[in-house]
Each structure stands twice: as C-alpha cells, then as structure tokens.
Amino acid sequence: MNWLSDDGLRVFLILTVILGGSAAFFAGSGLARTWKTFWRVLVYMALLAGAVRFFNYALFDGTLLSLYYYLVTYAVLMAAASFGFRLTRTTQMVTQYRWLYERTSPLTWRARDA
Known about the structure:
mainly alpha; two-stranded antiparallel sheet
C-alpha cells in the first residue's frame, strides 16, 4: 500500500482518514454554517493537508516534502470537507428557506413546486 502513504495503511487510516478527515469534515461544515463560499474550502484544505503531512513526518518519520503524498492527503481531506460543506448547506437551505426549497437527498435540494 505504498501508493497511499509512505508509512503504511494503519498510519494512513488513523492520521489522514480518521483524524484529518474529521477535522476536514468539521471545517467544511463550519464554513457552510457561516455562509462562506466553497472556494475557501480549497484553500483551507491545502493548509490542513500540510499540517497532516507535518504530523506524519514528525510522529511517524514520514516524508515531509513529497508532492505525491501531499496530493493524496489533499484529495482525502477535500472529499471529507466537501461532504461536510454540502451536507450542512443542504440542511441550511431546506431549513431556513423551507417555503422555497425541499430536500431531495442528504446532499441536494430543489425548488418547491408553486
């Protein structure tokens, strides 16, 4: 599993997916809750991916300056943050504008029929 992380699957799952993914989920949710635009998620996840890669380096002797592993980490964090952002934004739209929108799935909404 060297294509996921330079320290093995266990470190990747614990550090990147569980810890980093939960931080990314809550960051995406927080950005949506304050009505920020989605492009901020891209910037904040780039910073968080750098922090996760640093923890990988500092705690598990991983490679600090590896573009490939940084992009893998960034992709995982973006998926979690996007999910949190979209889930929160959907809840906001159907709760605060219930006369305009209805939920079609946990991540989507549509305009109500007149």
